[in-house]
Amino acid sequence: MTSAESTAEPTHEDAQTIQKLLVGVIGLLDTFSAEQRAAALFGFDDPRRLDWDIIPKPDRVGVSMHNLDRHQKVVVLELIRLAVSHEAYTKVLAIMQLEHVLRAREADFLGVAAPLWRTPDSYFLSIFGRPGFEDTWSLRFLGHHVCLNITIVNQRWISTTPSALGQQPMIGAGVLNPMAEDEGLGFDLLDALDDGQRSGAVIHDVAPADFVSRQVPLIGALEYPDHYDLGMPQYQITTADRQMLALVRDKPSGIAADRLDDAQRATLSRLLDTYLARLPATAAAQYRTQIDADGPAGIHFAWAGGLVRGVPHYFRVQTRSLLIEMVNAVDSGNHLHSVVRDFDHDFAHDSLRDHAAHLAEHGSHLRTRTTSSEGTELQANEWSW
Questions:
Q1: 345: which DSSP letter?
Q2: What is the pTM (predicted TM-score) of this model?
Q3: Are 277 and 84 in contact, with CB atoms under 8 Å apart?
Q4: 373 occurs within a structural domain
Q5: 316 located within any domain
Q6: CA 171 to CA 168: how far, in whole Å?
Q7: pLDDT tens per residue, range 332-376
Q8: Which residues span the domain enclosing 119?
Q9: What whole-number distance in Å separates Cα of residue 43 and Cα of residue 294?
Q10: Cα separation of 158 and 141, whole Å?
């Protein structure tokens, strides 16, 4: 790694955002009844912390927006606003309101369940761990087509990936079309490519049913998409398709940005920034600095499936740290899922690992606060980072 690359590495530190989220969550918990606390709070090691699937499921955990009063709902939305850009915040709000559109659109399919399934209150807030000073915890906001994962380690490091947003419908959405650029800028770039560039960008003529990285909590060196998306077997791909669509971390598919002209690179840059906007401003700026330092050769754009709207299609953007996936395959290309992920820092995996090693060697400030100094030697503050 060069010196320039080293200085461009994201630190994942953002004291201001962490502080605001921490005191906001502590304040919200102070308003919770015993029943709300029981629904919302889990141990940090609970395996459900890593469940970020954005399809409707019967075993959602957390306190439902149905069971919060008006003031508590506003605070929950304020916490979301703190963790994303203004643009992404308005997308989340619009996606939730699209449940009203889906309720009318799927009335025959869902029958009496339509008003129960399709409501903007069917979103769940979960808190894993203890939100406290110098502590490690996470907050998740999850429901149909929205999953925001916020992990804070030792009140110092923050991760807000995976961050998944979706939309249904895309065609005929009216004025509620929050994911227009998340998909549309991909089409803009594809349409701007010449024949030679397009042959490099298009990796397969069949789109995956959902993310190639699926819902794994940590992306491996090699990932294959599933044959079909959970609960939607009407769109399936073959084993050969899965091989063609494989994600290889060290060998990105598609066309590198250094093969694009200035106008095409500008479109790709806008696409990147659209997905970076799902992160806090400090994190987005750190990723952008790293991407710029790596240069155009470090960005790859890959497309699969149909080349026009209304048929299944997919694209991904891969950098040294980030993976962006957009898939619109089921419902004849009218049901979009998208995600931005960090290969190493999803759910703060790397920060948690490093922090655990540090604690094992030096101990914790939280422990020294409650242990008498009698009979011990004065130690250097090695726990202080």
A1: T
A2: 0.95
A3: yes
A4: no
A5: yes
A6: 8
A7: 999 999 999 999 999 999 999 999 998 888 888 777 788 888 988
A8: 3-360
A9: 39
A10: 16
